[in-house]
Amino acid sequence: MASALQRASAIMASGTMVSRILGFVKTALLGVAIGQLSRSADAFANGNILPNTLYMLLAGGMLNAILVPQIVKSVQHADGGKSYLNKVLTLVSVALFAVTALAMIGAPYVLHLLTPGWPDSQRMLAVAFAYWCIPQIMFYGWYTVLGEALNAKRVFGPFTWAPAIANVVAIAGILVYIFLFGTDNNPPISDWSPLSIGILGGSATLGIAAQALILIVPWRKAGLSYRPDFKWRGVGLGETGRTAFWALLTATLMTMGGLVVTPIMNLASGEGPATAAMQNIWLVFMLPHSVIAVSLVTAYFTRLSELGQTGNMPDFREAYTAAAKQVTMLMLFAATLMFMAAPFVTRVLWPTGTAEGIEAMALVMRVYSIGLAAYSLMFTTQRAFFALSDARTPFIFITAQLVALIGGLLIAVSFVEAAHIGVTYAAIWTASTVGQSAFALWLLRRRLGSIGGRELLSGIARYVIAAIPTIIVGMLLVGAATRIAPDYGMGLAVVFAFVIAAVMGVIYLVMLILLRVPEVQGILRRLGKR
């Protein structure tokens, strides 16, 4: 079982890595085309915010909470779950169509709420981008449903490789834009035309469409077929609805939180890291989480769902503890690396950026990185609850974090300048996420009686000890690199980032070996046998 999970994790990690690298390239090219801290960049980011937000809600909560545990159970039906999948996909398609139509109608009103203080020209540019981007909602939803069904059938690769296609299409669109309209770190709002708006917004949506529709091929190869079925009774949709209630409540709460946070972030547009820059920094922040934590936990999730549905709690606890330890060990290193390499990564993210802009974005990235391991551990715990068909408890700790985040931000924004809103948000998010992770662990322990807490804490203590000399070496390397080339460009930034990553990785690995960390010992034994 362990080797199967590792193979599945490797397949997903490789797909996610390729996709994220292409996403990084796309973001860097977009920064070259329209800047990172410009009003045009913020208009594009806000125009694209509705489909992106709804996708995060679908993939991160509602559909994950519903589909995998229920599909695992439906596979035991005589038809192998085909009837259930047809009903669910039909229901989701109808709901997506309705949501997309409502979003198109309400886009001007939503963006008016999200962009207080913006000039009308900038807001209208955001609305124009929104009309091109909102159809992504349909394709994001189909991608999530088709992909999660494949995961439940243990066909892991396509779901994580499909986003690479979306990024390739979007990159092509940005290159066409650059060829036709050139590059500018701060393009005037008045320079935008229907053609330039259509190229950027349309290529983004075309990429998401390709990402969803390509999954039809593996869907058929997995022995699945689709026939619209509007009879939504008889295969457990009632239980699905009960599970979905809390996930839907969570999604609604997070959407409301976004309606509070986004306008505050938009106050910084043109002054410092605002919506566009914060989204792109978050993309980098999510890279190690997506490649490592999501891939590993997704592979464990199907196993946890099977154990949860059969009531095998001893093996469930063991599987959860193993996942939590592996995720924390890897993400703690990723956090130290991100903290040290932030200036170089930011330069790659924005090759034409000013020194002041790069410094401001790097500071935000460093503050975010402090909460990376806690965020991935919380994600692991959340999926454990989902595997138990429990979306109510995740609602509790997500609500607690969101209340702390919004409350802290509303208080802090009264005291900080617009240019510092981004880093203030990152600091409050990090503090609230660390508390959220601890709260989620406590709630899971209450649910299961035991989660191997001593073993988990002992492992985390060893990882922290291993990280200390790794951080020290990283600090020395960053200091030496900036002294050697204080005005480094994109090329040197890539070299510095890779060298620092390699050296810090060796130090961390050696420390884990010296501390006799079982997870590393097991990996080394398997490598030795091969």
From TrEMBL:
<feature type="transmembrane region" description="Helical">
    <location>
        <begin position="240"/>
        <end position="261"/>
    </location>
</feature>
<feature type="transmembrane region" description="Helical">
    <location>
        <begin position="192"/>
        <end position="219"/>
    </location>
</feature>
<dbReference type="GO" id="GO:0008360">
    <property type="term" value="P:regulation of cell shape"/>
</dbReference>
<dbReference type="GO" id="GO:0005886">
    <property type="term" value="C:plasma membrane"/>
</dbReference>
<feature type="transmembrane region" description="Helical">
    <location>
        <begin position="53"/>
        <end position="72"/>
    </location>
</feature>
<dbReference type="GO" id="GO:0009252">
    <property type="term" value="P:peptidoglycan biosynthetic process"/>
</dbReference>
<feature type="transmembrane region" description="Helical">
    <location>
        <begin position="322"/>
        <end position="345"/>
    </location>
</feature>
<feature type="transmembrane region" description="Helical">
    <location>
        <begin position="84"/>
        <end position="111"/>
    </location>
</feature>
<dbReference type="GO" id="GO:0034204">
    <property type="term" value="P:lipid translocation"/>
</dbReference>
<feature type="transmembrane region" description="Helical">
    <location>
        <begin position="456"/>
        <end position="478"/>
    </location>
</feature>
<keyword id="KW-1133">Transmembrane helix</keyword>
<feature type="transmembrane region" description="Helical">
    <location>
        <begin position="422"/>
        <end position="444"/>
    </location>
</feature>
<feature type="transmembrane region" description="Helical">
    <location>
        <begin position="155"/>
        <end position="180"/>
    </location>
</feature>
<keyword id="KW-0472">Membrane</keyword>
<dbReference type="GO" id="GO:0015648">
    <property type="term" value="F:lipid-linked peptidoglycan transporter activity"/>
</dbReference>
<protein>
    <submittedName>
        <fullName>MOP family membrane protein</fullName>
    </submittedName>
</protein>
<feature type="transmembrane region" description="Helical">
    <location>
        <begin position="123"/>
        <end position="143"/>
    </location>
</feature>
<feature type="transmembrane region" description="Helical">
    <location>
        <begin position="281"/>
        <end position="301"/>
    </location>
</feature>
<dbReference type="InterPro" id="IPR004268">
    <property type="entry name" value="MurJ"/>
</dbReference>
<dbReference type="Pfam" id="PF03023">
    <property type="entry name" value="MurJ"/>
</dbReference>
<keyword id="KW-0133">Cell shape</keyword>
<feature type="transmembrane region" description="Helical">
    <location>
        <begin position="365"/>
        <end position="388"/>
    </location>
</feature>
<keyword id="KW-1003">Cell membrane</keyword>
<keyword id="KW-0573">Peptidoglycan synthesis</keyword>
<keyword id="KW-0812">Transmembrane</keyword>
<dbReference type="InterPro" id="IPR051050">
    <property type="entry name" value="Lipid_II_flippase_MurJ/MviN"/>
</dbReference>
<feature type="transmembrane region" description="Helical">
    <location>
        <begin position="395"/>
        <end position="416"/>
    </location>
</feature>
<feature type="transmembrane region" description="Helical">
    <location>
        <begin position="490"/>
        <end position="515"/>
    </location>
</feature>
